[in-house]
Write a structure and sequence with these properties.
It contains 13 helices and nine strands. The two termini are 39 Å apart. The strands form two sheets. The protein has a six-stranded parallel beta sheet with strand order 3-2-1-4-5-6. A three-stranded mixed beta sheet has the order 7-8-9, covered by helices on one side. Helix 4 packs parallel to helix 5, helix 7 packs across helix 9 and helix 7 crosses helix 11. Strand 5, helix 5 and strand 6 form a beta-alpha-beta unit. The chain is of the alpha/beta class and 307 residues long. It binds NADP nicotinamide-adenine-dinucleotide phosphate. The site of NADP nicotinamide-adenine-dinucleotide phosphate has 28 residues, from helix 1 and helix 4. It holds the Pfam family PDH_C. This is prephenate dehydrogenase.
Length: 307
Protein backbone atom coordinates (compact mmCIF):
# COMPACT_ATOMS: atom_id res chain seq x y z
CA UNK A 1 0.00 0.00 0.00
CA UNK A 2 1.23 3.42 -0.93
CA UNK A 3 -1.47 5.80 0.30
CA UNK A 4 -0.87 9.22 -1.23
CA UNK A 5 -4.23 10.90 -0.60
CA UNK A 6 -6.92 10.47 2.03
CA UNK A 7 -9.77 11.12 -0.36
CA UNK A 8 -9.73 11.23 -4.15
CA UNK A 9 -12.81 12.58 -5.95
CA UNK A 10 -13.31 11.35 -9.51
CA UNK A 11 -15.56 13.73 -11.43
CA UNK A 12 -16.65 11.81 -14.54
CA UNK A 13 -16.41 8.03 -14.57
CA UNK A 14 -16.11 7.03 -18.23
CA UNK A 15 -13.14 5.25 -19.81
CA UNK A 16 -10.54 7.46 -18.11
CA UNK A 17 -12.29 7.96 -14.75
CA UNK A 18 -13.00 4.25 -14.30
CA UNK A 19 -9.47 3.25 -15.34
CA UNK A 20 -8.17 5.67 -12.71
CA UNK A 21 -10.53 4.15 -10.14
CA UNK A 22 -9.27 0.62 -10.80
CA UNK A 23 -5.63 1.66 -10.45
CA UNK A 24 -6.15 3.86 -7.37
CA UNK A 25 -7.81 0.90 -5.67
CA UNK A 26 -5.35 -1.72 -6.94
CA UNK A 27 -2.35 0.33 -5.88
CA UNK A 28 -3.91 1.60 -2.64
CA UNK A 29 -3.27 5.23 -3.55
CA UNK A 30 -6.23 6.61 -1.56
CA UNK A 31 -8.10 5.75 1.62
CA UNK A 32 -11.37 6.68 -0.03
CA UNK A 33 -12.56 7.08 -3.63
CA UNK A 34 -15.61 9.25 -4.26
CA UNK A 35 -17.24 8.87 -7.67
CA UNK A 36 -19.38 11.58 -9.25
CA UNK A 37 -21.09 11.60 -12.61
CA UNK A 38 -24.02 13.63 -13.90
CA UNK A 39 -26.39 10.80 -14.88
CA UNK A 40 -28.04 8.34 -12.51
CA UNK A 41 -27.54 5.52 -15.03
CA UNK A 42 -23.76 5.94 -15.27
CA UNK A 43 -23.55 6.32 -11.49
CA UNK A 44 -25.49 3.07 -11.02
CA UNK A 45 -23.16 1.27 -13.41
CA UNK A 46 -20.09 2.64 -11.59
CA UNK A 47 -21.56 1.33 -8.36
CA UNK A 48 -22.24 -2.10 -9.87
CA UNK A 49 -18.63 -2.22 -11.02
CA UNK A 50 -17.50 -1.27 -7.51
CA UNK A 51 -15.40 1.63 -8.75
CA UNK A 52 -15.62 3.79 -5.62
CA UNK A 53 -16.42 3.90 -1.93
CA UNK A 54 -19.09 6.62 -2.25
CA UNK A 55 -21.25 7.67 -5.20
CA UNK A 56 -23.07 10.89 -5.99
CA UNK A 57 -24.52 12.83 -8.91
CA UNK A 58 -23.34 16.05 -7.25
CA UNK A 59 -19.78 17.05 -8.14
CA UNK A 60 -19.93 19.69 -5.39
CA UNK A 61 -20.63 17.01 -2.76
CA UNK A 62 -17.95 14.73 -4.18
CA UNK A 63 -15.10 17.24 -3.83
CA UNK A 64 -15.83 18.12 -0.18
CA UNK A 65 -12.76 17.16 1.86
CA UNK A 66 -11.05 15.58 -1.17
CA UNK A 67 -7.27 16.06 -1.30
CA UNK A 68 -7.14 15.22 -4.98
CA UNK A 69 -9.88 16.00 -7.50
CA UNK A 70 -9.60 14.54 -11.01
CA UNK A 71 -11.99 15.90 -13.62
CA UNK A 72 -12.52 13.39 -16.48
CA UNK A 73 -15.33 14.84 -18.59
CA UNK A 74 -15.47 15.98 -22.25
CA UNK A 75 -13.37 19.17 -22.52
CA UNK A 76 -16.41 21.29 -23.42
CA UNK A 77 -17.91 20.54 -20.00
CA UNK A 78 -14.86 21.82 -18.06
CA UNK A 79 -16.26 25.24 -17.21
CA UNK A 80 -19.57 23.98 -15.89
CA UNK A 81 -17.79 21.42 -13.70
CA UNK A 82 -15.34 24.08 -12.43
CA UNK A 83 -18.24 26.36 -11.51
CA UNK A 84 -20.04 23.55 -9.74
CA UNK A 85 -17.11 22.40 -7.59
CA UNK A 86 -15.35 25.73 -6.89
CA UNK A 87 -17.07 26.68 -3.62
CA UNK A 88 -16.79 23.17 -2.13
CA UNK A 89 -13.09 22.53 -2.75
CA UNK A 90 -10.94 21.85 0.31
CA UNK A 91 -8.17 24.40 0.91
CA UNK A 92 -4.86 22.89 -0.23
CA UNK A 93 -6.54 20.35 -2.53
CA UNK A 94 -4.90 19.44 -5.82
CA UNK A 95 -7.34 19.78 -8.72
CA UNK A 96 -6.41 18.27 -12.06
CA UNK A 97 -8.06 17.11 -15.27
CA UNK A 98 -7.34 14.66 -18.07
CA UNK A 99 -8.72 16.63 -21.02
CA UNK A 100 -7.26 16.15 -24.49
CA UNK A 101 -6.92 19.91 -25.09
CA UNK A 102 -5.23 22.16 -22.57
CA UNK A 103 -5.39 25.90 -23.39
CA UNK A 104 -9.17 25.76 -23.55
CA UNK A 105 -9.49 23.74 -20.33
CA UNK A 106 -7.29 26.28 -18.52
CA UNK A 107 -9.36 29.18 -19.89
CA UNK A 108 -12.54 27.45 -18.74
CA UNK A 109 -11.42 26.27 -15.29
CA UNK A 110 -8.72 28.59 -13.95
CA UNK A 111 -10.92 31.68 -13.45
CA UNK A 112 -13.17 29.65 -11.14
CA UNK A 113 -10.46 28.04 -9.03
CA UNK A 114 -10.09 29.52 -5.52
CA UNK A 115 -6.62 30.85 -4.64
CA UNK A 116 -6.17 28.24 -1.92
CA UNK A 117 -6.27 25.18 -4.21
CA UNK A 118 -3.62 23.90 -6.62
CA UNK A 119 -4.99 23.61 -10.13
CA UNK A 120 -2.67 21.54 -12.35
CA UNK A 121 -3.98 20.70 -15.84
CA UNK A 122 -2.95 17.27 -17.12
CA UNK A 123 -3.42 14.91 -20.04
CA UNK A 124 -2.64 11.19 -19.97
CA UNK A 125 -1.74 10.00 -23.48
CA UNK A 126 -3.60 6.76 -23.02
CA UNK A 127 -6.98 5.57 -24.13
CA UNK A 128 -9.01 3.47 -26.50
CA UNK A 129 -11.94 4.05 -28.84
CA UNK A 130 -14.35 2.85 -26.14
CA UNK A 131 -16.22 5.06 -23.67
CA UNK A 132 -18.25 4.79 -20.47
CA UNK A 133 -17.45 3.08 -17.15
CA UNK A 134 -17.44 -0.40 -18.71
CA UNK A 135 -14.58 0.60 -20.99
CA UNK A 136 -12.08 1.20 -18.18
CA UNK A 137 -9.43 -1.28 -17.12
CA UNK A 138 -6.48 -1.44 -14.73
CA UNK A 139 -3.07 -0.66 -16.19
CA UNK A 140 -4.29 1.73 -18.91
CA UNK A 141 -1.67 4.32 -17.96
CA UNK A 142 1.25 1.92 -17.57
CA UNK A 143 4.21 2.99 -19.72
CA UNK A 144 2.27 5.95 -21.18
CA UNK A 145 3.07 9.64 -21.00
CA UNK A 146 1.10 12.05 -18.86
CA UNK A 147 1.66 15.69 -19.80
CA UNK A 148 1.19 18.48 -17.27
CA UNK A 149 0.66 22.03 -18.51
CA UNK A 150 1.12 24.00 -15.27
CA UNK A 151 0.05 27.62 -15.09
CA UNK A 152 2.40 30.34 -13.82
CA UNK A 153 3.08 30.25 -10.09
CA UNK A 154 2.14 26.60 -9.55
CA UNK A 155 3.28 25.28 -6.18
CA UNK A 156 6.25 22.91 -6.56
CA UNK A 157 5.13 20.59 -3.77
CA UNK A 158 1.69 20.17 -5.36
CA UNK A 159 3.33 19.41 -8.70
CA UNK A 160 5.53 16.83 -7.01
CA UNK A 161 2.53 15.16 -5.37
CA UNK A 162 0.65 14.92 -8.65
CA UNK A 163 3.76 13.67 -10.44
CA UNK A 164 4.18 10.92 -7.82
CA UNK A 165 0.54 9.95 -8.33
CA UNK A 166 0.90 9.45 -12.09
CA UNK A 167 4.25 7.74 -11.67
CA UNK A 168 2.59 5.29 -9.25
CA UNK A 169 0.17 4.46 -12.11
CA UNK A 170 3.22 3.61 -14.22
CA UNK A 171 3.15 6.78 -16.33
CA UNK A 172 6.07 8.94 -17.38
CA UNK A 173 5.41 12.61 -16.67
CA UNK A 174 6.41 15.55 -18.85
CA UNK A 175 5.68 19.26 -18.57
CA UNK A 176 5.11 21.80 -21.32
CA UNK A 177 3.07 24.91 -21.91
CA UNK A 178 -0.54 24.45 -22.93
CA UNK A 179 -0.18 26.00 -26.42
CA UNK A 180 2.71 23.69 -27.24
CA UNK A 181 0.77 20.69 -25.95
CA UNK A 182 -2.18 21.59 -28.16
CA UNK A 183 0.04 21.81 -31.26
CA UNK A 184 1.80 18.51 -30.58
CA UNK A 185 -1.48 16.73 -29.87
CA UNK A 186 -3.09 18.24 -32.96
CA UNK A 187 -0.63 16.33 -35.14
CA UNK A 188 -0.17 13.10 -33.17
CA UNK A 189 -3.76 12.54 -32.09
CA UNK A 190 -6.37 15.03 -33.28
CA UNK A 191 -5.50 15.04 -36.99
CA UNK A 192 -5.35 11.21 -37.26
CA UNK A 193 -8.82 11.01 -35.73
CA UNK A 194 -10.19 13.68 -38.07
CA UNK A 195 -8.67 11.90 -41.08
CA UNK A 196 -10.18 8.61 -39.90
CA UNK A 197 -13.63 10.14 -39.37
CA UNK A 198 -13.35 11.69 -42.82
CA UNK A 199 -12.18 8.61 -44.72
CA UNK A 200 -14.80 6.38 -43.13
CA UNK A 201 -17.44 9.02 -43.89
CA UNK A 202 -16.26 9.23 -47.52
CA UNK A 203 -16.44 5.44 -47.93
CA UNK A 204 -19.91 5.50 -46.43
CA UNK A 205 -21.00 8.19 -48.92
CA UNK A 206 -19.69 6.48 -52.09
CA UNK A 207 -22.60 5.47 -54.29
CA UNK A 208 -20.48 3.08 -56.39
CA UNK A 209 -19.40 1.04 -53.37
CA UNK A 210 -22.17 -0.48 -51.32
CA UNK A 211 -22.07 -0.51 -47.54
CA UNK A 212 -21.91 -4.30 -47.52
CA UNK A 213 -18.75 -4.18 -49.68
CA UNK A 214 -17.16 -1.63 -47.35
CA UNK A 215 -17.72 -4.03 -44.48
CA UNK A 216 -16.93 -7.24 -46.36
CA UNK A 217 -13.58 -6.07 -47.78
CA UNK A 218 -12.57 -3.91 -44.83
CA UNK A 219 -9.35 -5.88 -44.14
CA UNK A 220 -7.50 -3.82 -46.74
CA UNK A 221 -6.40 -0.88 -44.59
CA UNK A 222 -9.85 0.59 -44.05
CA UNK A 223 -10.40 -1.41 -40.86
CA UNK A 224 -7.56 0.39 -39.05
CA UNK A 225 -9.29 3.71 -39.73
CA UNK A 226 -12.65 2.41 -38.50
CA UNK A 227 -11.18 1.81 -35.04
CA UNK A 228 -10.28 5.50 -34.69
CA UNK A 229 -13.53 6.58 -36.35
CA UNK A 230 -15.50 4.61 -33.74
CA UNK A 231 -14.24 6.93 -30.97
CA UNK A 232 -16.70 8.82 -28.81
CA UNK A 233 -18.45 11.53 -30.88
CA UNK A 234 -18.97 13.90 -27.92
CA UNK A 235 -15.34 13.75 -26.83
CA UNK A 236 -14.05 14.29 -30.36
CA UNK A 237 -16.53 17.02 -31.24
CA UNK A 238 -15.28 18.87 -28.17
CA UNK A 239 -11.62 18.30 -29.11
CA UNK A 240 -12.29 19.81 -32.57
CA UNK A 241 -14.10 22.82 -31.11
CA UNK A 242 -11.57 23.40 -28.31
CA UNK A 243 -8.30 23.00 -30.23
CA UNK A 244 -9.56 24.74 -33.32
CA UNK A 245 -6.53 26.88 -34.21
CA UNK A 246 -3.89 24.16 -33.87
CA UNK A 247 -6.08 21.65 -35.73
CA UNK A 248 -6.74 24.09 -38.58
CA UNK A 249 -3.00 24.80 -38.84
CA UNK A 250 -2.18 21.09 -39.02
CA UNK A 251 -5.00 20.44 -41.50
CA UNK A 252 -3.56 23.14 -43.77
CA UNK A 253 -0.12 21.49 -43.63
CA UNK A 254 -1.71 18.10 -44.24
CA UNK A 255 -3.62 19.37 -47.28
CA UNK A 256 -0.42 20.81 -48.80
CA UNK A 257 1.42 17.54 -48.31
CA UNK A 258 -1.50 15.59 -49.72
CA UNK A 259 -1.47 17.82 -52.80
CA UNK A 260 2.26 17.01 -53.23
CA UNK A 261 1.51 13.28 -53.06
CA UNK A 262 -1.47 13.67 -55.37
CA UNK A 263 0.72 15.42 -57.91
CA UNK A 264 3.43 12.75 -57.66
CA UNK A 265 0.83 10.06 -58.33
CA UNK A 266 -0.66 12.03 -61.24
CA UNK A 267 2.75 12.49 -62.91
CA UNK A 268 3.99 9.00 -62.16
CA UNK A 269 6.85 10.30 -59.98
CA UNK A 270 7.71 6.97 -58.37
CA UNK A 271 10.92 8.25 -56.75
CA UNK A 272 9.05 10.91 -54.77
CA UNK A 273 6.41 8.43 -53.67
CA UNK A 274 9.02 5.84 -52.69
CA UNK A 275 11.09 8.41 -50.75
CA UNK A 276 8.05 9.49 -48.71
CA UNK A 277 6.91 5.95 -47.95
CA UNK A 278 10.44 4.97 -46.87
CA UNK A 279 10.67 7.96 -44.55
CA UNK A 280 7.32 7.21 -42.92
CA UNK A 281 8.22 3.55 -42.41
CA UNK A 282 11.19 4.68 -40.30
CA UNK A 283 8.84 6.65 -38.03
CA UNK A 284 6.96 3.45 -37.24
CA UNK A 285 10.26 1.79 -36.28
CA UNK A 286 11.13 4.71 -33.97
CA UNK A 287 7.77 4.44 -32.21
CA UNK A 288 8.33 0.74 -31.55
CA UNK A 289 11.89 1.43 -30.33
CA UNK A 290 10.48 4.08 -27.95
CA UNK A 291 8.18 1.41 -26.46
CA UNK A 292 4.99 3.20 -27.56
CA UNK A 293 3.76 0.20 -29.59
CA UNK A 294 4.68 -3.40 -30.27
CA UNK A 295 5.92 -4.77 -33.57
CA UNK A 296 3.08 -7.29 -33.97
CA UNK A 297 1.49 -7.00 -37.44
CA UNK A 298 -1.83 -6.82 -35.71
CA UNK A 299 -3.81 -3.66 -34.81
CA UNK A 300 -6.56 -5.65 -33.16
CA UNK A 301 -6.68 -8.51 -35.66
CA UNK A 302 -4.97 -10.84 -33.22
CA UNK A 303 -8.11 -11.19 -31.14
CA UNK A 304 -10.18 -11.73 -34.28
CA UNK A 305 -7.89 -14.50 -35.56
CA UNK A 306 -8.36 -16.39 -32.31
CA UNK A 307 -12.15 -16.51 -32.72
P1 LIG B 1 -16.35 8.99 -21.47
O1 LIG B 1 -15.97 7.54 -21.34
O2 LIG B 1 -17.32 9.37 -22.53
O3 LIG B 1 -16.93 9.50 -20.04
C1 LIG B 1 -17.32 10.83 -19.89
C2 LIG B 1 -17.71 11.14 -18.47
O4 LIG B 1 -18.00 12.54 -18.42
C3 LIG B 1 -18.97 10.42 -17.98
O5 LIG B 1 -18.91 10.25 -16.58
C4 LIG B 1 -20.07 11.43 -18.33
O6 LIG B 1 -21.18 11.40 -17.46
C5 LIG B 1 -19.37 12.74 -18.07
N1 LIG B 1 -19.94 13.82 -18.87
C6 LIG B 1 -20.25 13.79 -20.18
N2 LIG B 1 -20.72 14.99 -20.58
C7 LIG B 1 -20.75 15.77 -19.48
C8 LIG B 1 -21.16 17.11 -19.24
N3 LIG B 1 -21.64 17.89 -20.23
N4 LIG B 1 -21.06 17.60 -17.96
C9 LIG B 1 -20.57 16.82 -16.96
N5 LIG B 1 -20.17 15.55 -17.15
C10 LIG B 1 -20.25 15.04 -18.38
O7 LIG B 1 -15.06 9.90 -21.68
P2 LIG B 1 -13.51 9.54 -21.48
O8 LIG B 1 -13.04 8.79 -22.68
O9 LIG B 1 -13.27 9.00 -20.13
O10 LIG B 1 -12.88 11.01 -21.62
C11 LIG B 1 -12.88 11.90 -20.54
C12 LIG B 1 -11.85 13.00 -20.79
O11 LIG B 1 -10.58 12.37 -20.99
C13 LIG B 1 -12.11 13.84 -22.04
O12 LIG B 1 -11.82 15.18 -21.76
C14 LIG B 1 -11.10 13.32 -23.05
O13 LIG B 1 -10.69 14.36 -23.91
C15 LIG B 1 -9.97 12.86 -22.14
N6 LIG B 1 -9.15 11.77 -22.69
C16 LIG B 1 -9.75 10.73 -23.34
C17 LIG B 1 -8.95 9.70 -23.85
C18 LIG B 1 -9.59 8.55 -24.60
O14 LIG B 1 -8.90 7.83 -25.33
N7 LIG B 1 -10.87 8.32 -24.44
C19 LIG B 1 -7.57 9.73 -23.67
C20 LIG B 1 -7.00 10.79 -22.95
C21 LIG B 1 -7.80 11.81 -22.47
P3 LIG B 1 -22.57 10.66 -17.74
O15 LIG B 1 -22.23 9.34 -18.40
O16 LIG B 1 -23.13 10.50 -16.37
O17 LIG B 1 -23.34 11.55 -18.64
Amino acid sequence: MNVQFDRIALIGIGLIGSSLAYDIRRLGLAKEIVVATRSADTLKRAEELGLGDRYTTSSADAVKDADLVIVSVPVGASESVAKEIAASLKPGAVVTDVGSTKASVIAQMLPHMPDNVHFIPGHPLAGTEKSGPDAGFPGLFEGRWCIFTPVAGTDEMALKRLRSFWEALGSKVDEMDAEHHDKVLAIVSHLPHIIAYNIVGTADDLETVTESEVIKYSASGFRDFTRLAASDPTMWRDVCLHNRDAILEMLARFSEDLAYLQRAIRWGEGDKIFELFTRTRAIRRSIIQAGQDVDAPDFGRHALDKK
